[in-house]
Automatic annotation (TrEMBL):
Entry annotation: catalytic residues: 376
Keyword Hydrolase: yes
Family per similarity comment: Belongs to the glycosyl hydrolase 1 family.
Transmembrane residue ranges: none
PROSITE patterns reported for this sequence: GLYCOSYL_HYDROL_F1_1 (PS00572), GLYCOSYL_HYDROL_F1_2 (PS00653)
One Pfam short name: Glyco_hydro_1
Keywords on record: Glycosidase, Hydrolase
Name of the featured protein: 6-phospho-beta-glucosidase
Length: 480
C-alpha cells in the first residue's frame, strides 16, 4: 500500500455553497449571500460601482438556497458513509454563529446545527475536517468595518474561534483557519471582504488585511492547542504550479516572482512563523507599504504556526511576460496567466494538469517539511442524465484517477500526505460562477441554474468508482 493506513479519504464542501437556509434560525447575511449568480458574478463584484450595501433583489442569489444541505445533511452524510468516507471537510458559517460578527454572545441555534452535523459524521466514523472561515465572513463586517483591513476583525474572529473550538474540539481533531487565504492576491472580496469601493485596488489594504488574518489564524491555533493537546490546525491555500511559457530566463524569473507572491507568501508566514526576506521586494512589486503591526504580533506568529498545509489543486498556469510568441490568456480559480499548449482545459477554461499535482506536492514538501492535505481537487463539468436515467461521468473518473495516480507517485517521492477530499463531493453552487451546471460531485442534485428542481440526490457512475478507490486505499483506480 502506498497511502497510510489511516489516510483521510473523503470529500469537501463549503457552508455558503451547499447549506442554503441563509436566513434561518438566526443566521445573518454573509459576503457570499450578497454575491449574484451567473458567470458575470466576479466582474460585477469587481466593478467600482458595486458595494456591499445592496438590496438583495438586483440579481438571483443561488447561495441563499444552495442544495439545502442545512435540512438534508443526514441524507447527504448517509451517502458519504456509503462511499466509505473517512473524512468530510466542511466549513462553519461564521454568520450562523455570530450573525453580524461583532456580537458578544453567539447564536445557540447555529451552534446546535453544527453539533448535529458533527455528531452525524461521527456516528458513521467520519472525521470532520472543519474550515473556520470559508468565504463566509459576516456581511456586516465588510460593510461597517471595511473587511479584514480593519484590525477590529481580529478580536471578532478570536471570539468566534474560541466559541467553536471550545464547543467542538473535543470531538473534532482536524481544523483549518482561512480557506484559500492567498486568493486575495487576485480577488480579495471572498476572503477579505474587500471590493474596489472599500479599497481593494490599493494593495496596501490587501497586505494589511493578510496581516490581520495571520494574527487571527495564530490566535486560533493558540486557542485550539489550549483546548485539545493533539488537535491539528492547518492553513489552507490555492496552490498552482506557475510554469515559464518558454525557456527565456526572464519568463522563468517572472514565474518565480509570481510563485512567491501567489503560492508561497501566505504559507511562508503561517508555517514558518515570520515574514519572508523577500517581503520588501514583494511590496515594491505591488506598490504597497509594510503592514502596520502591533506589539506582540511577531511573537504570536512565531509561537503559533500551523501543523499542516491544506491546499486546493485544480490546475497549473503558464506565465509569459517576455516571449514574442502570441499567447492566449487563461484563467481559473482566481488566477490568471496564459494558455499552456501542452494541456487540455475544462469547459470553464481550467487547464488539466495531473502531473502538476505531483510537482506541487514535491515543491511544498521540499520547502516546508510539514504534512500536506489535498482538501480540494476536482473537475467542474456539465452532467447529463441518459435515457436510462444514469449519469455516466467517465470524464470525472478519468480526471480524478490521473490525479490520484500522481499523488501515489509523490508519496513514493517521499511526500508526507495526510488525505484527499475532492471538491464538491456532492453537487453545489460553484463559487466562481454561482452556477449549478458546473458540477463536481459524485452525487447529482436535481437543481438548475435558475433554481428549479426537486433537490433529489442521485448517484453518478463516479460514486461507486470512488467507493472502490477508498475501499482499496487508492490501489484500484480502474473504471469498470
Amino acid at each position: 500500500m502506498v497511502f497510510k493506513k489511516d489516510f483521510l479519504w473523503g470529500g469537501a464542501t463549503a457552508a455558503n455553497q451547499c447549506e442554503g437556509a441563509y436566513d434561518v434560525d438566526g443566521k445573518g447575511l454573509s459576503v457570499a449571500d450578497a454575491m449574484p449568480g451567473g458567470r458575470e458574478r466576479m466582474s460585477i463584484i469587481s466593478s467600482p460601482n458595486f458595494n456591499w450595501d445592496v438590496e438583495l433583489t438586483n440579481y438571483r442569489y443561488p447561495n441563499h438556497v444552495g442544495i439545502d444541505h442545512y435540512h438534508r445533511f443526514k441524507e447527504d452524510i448517509t451517502l458519504f458513509a456509503e462511499m466509505g468516507f473517512k473524512a468530510y471537510r466542511f466549513s462553519i458559517a461564521w454568520s450562523r454563529i455570530f450573525p453580524k460578527g461583532d456580537e458578544l454572545e453567539p447564536n445557540e441555534k447555529g451552534l446546535a446545527f453544527y453539533d448535529a452535523l458533527i455528531d452525524e459524521c461521527l456516528s458513521y466514523g467520519i472525521e470532520p475536517v472543519i474550515t473556520i472561515s470559508h468565504y463566509e465572513m459576516p456581511l456586516h463586517l465588510a460593510k461597517e468595518y471595511g473587511g479584514w483591513k480593519n484590525r477590529q476583525l481580529v478580536a471578532f474572529f478570536e471570539r468566534y474561534a474560541k466559541v467553536i473550538l471550545e464547543r467542538y474540539a473535543h470531538k473534532v481533531k482536524y481544523w483549518m483557519t482561512f480557506n484559500e487565504i492567498n486568493s486575495a492576491m487576485e480577488f480579495p472580496a471572498l476572503s477579505q471582504g474587500l471590493i474596489p469601493s472599500t479599497g481593494s485596488d490599493d494593495y496596501t489594504n490587501r497586505f494589511q488585511a493578510w496581516h490581520h488574518q495571520f494574527v487571527a489564524s495564530a490566535l486560533a491555533v493558540k486557542i485550539g492547542k489550549s483546548v485539545r493537546e493533539d488537535i491539528q490546525i492547518g492553513c489552507m491555500q490555492i496552490y498552482a504550479p506557475l510554469y515559464a511559457f518558454d525557456s527565456n530566463p526572464e519568463n522563468q524569473f517572472a514565474s518565480q516572482l509570481k510563485q512567491r507572491a501567489f503560492d508561497y507568501f501566505t504559507s511562508d508566514v503561517q508555517v514558518r512563523g515570520y515574514y519572508p526576506t523577500y517581503i520588501k521586494q514583494l511590496l515594491k512589486t505591488y506598490n504597497a507599504t509594510m503592514p502596520v503591526m502591533e506589539e506582540g504580533d511577531e511573537e504570536l506568529l512565531r509561537d503559533n504556526t500551523v501543523d499542516y498545509i491544506g491546499f486546493s489543486y485544480y490546475m497549473s498556469m503558464a506565465i509569459n511576460e517576455k516571449s514574442a510568441e502570441e499567447t492566449d490568456p487563461a484563467a481559473g480559480n482566481l488566477m490568471e496567466g496564459v494558455r499552456n499548449p501542452f494541456l487540455e482545459a475544462s469547459e470553464w477554461g481550467w487547464q488539466i494538469d495531473p502531473l502538476g499535482l505531483r510537482i506541487s506536492l514535491n515543491d511544498l514538501w521540499d520547502r516546508y517539511q510539514v504534512p500536506l492535505f489535498i482538501v480540494e481537487n476536482g473537475l467542474g463539468a456539465k452532467d447529463t442524465i441518459d435515457e436510462k436515467g444514469a449519469i455516466n461521468d467517465d470524464y470525472r473518473i478519468e480526471y480524478l484517477a490521473k490525479h490520484i495516480q500522481t499523488m501515489k507517485e509523490a508519496v513514493e517521492d517521499g511526500v508526507d500526505l495526510m488525505g484527499y477530499t475532492p471538491w464538491g463531493c456532492i453537487d453545489l453552487v460553484a463559487a466562481s460562477t454561482g452556477e449549478m451546471s458546473k458540477r463536481y460531485g459524485f452525487i447529482y442534485v436535481d437543481l438548475d441554474d435558475e433554481g428549479n428542481g426537486s433537490f433529489n440526490r442521485q448517484k453518478k457512475k463516479s460514486f461507486n468508482w470512488y467507493k472502490k478507490v477508498i475501499a482499496s486505499n487508492g490501489e484500484d483506480l480502474e473504471n469498470n
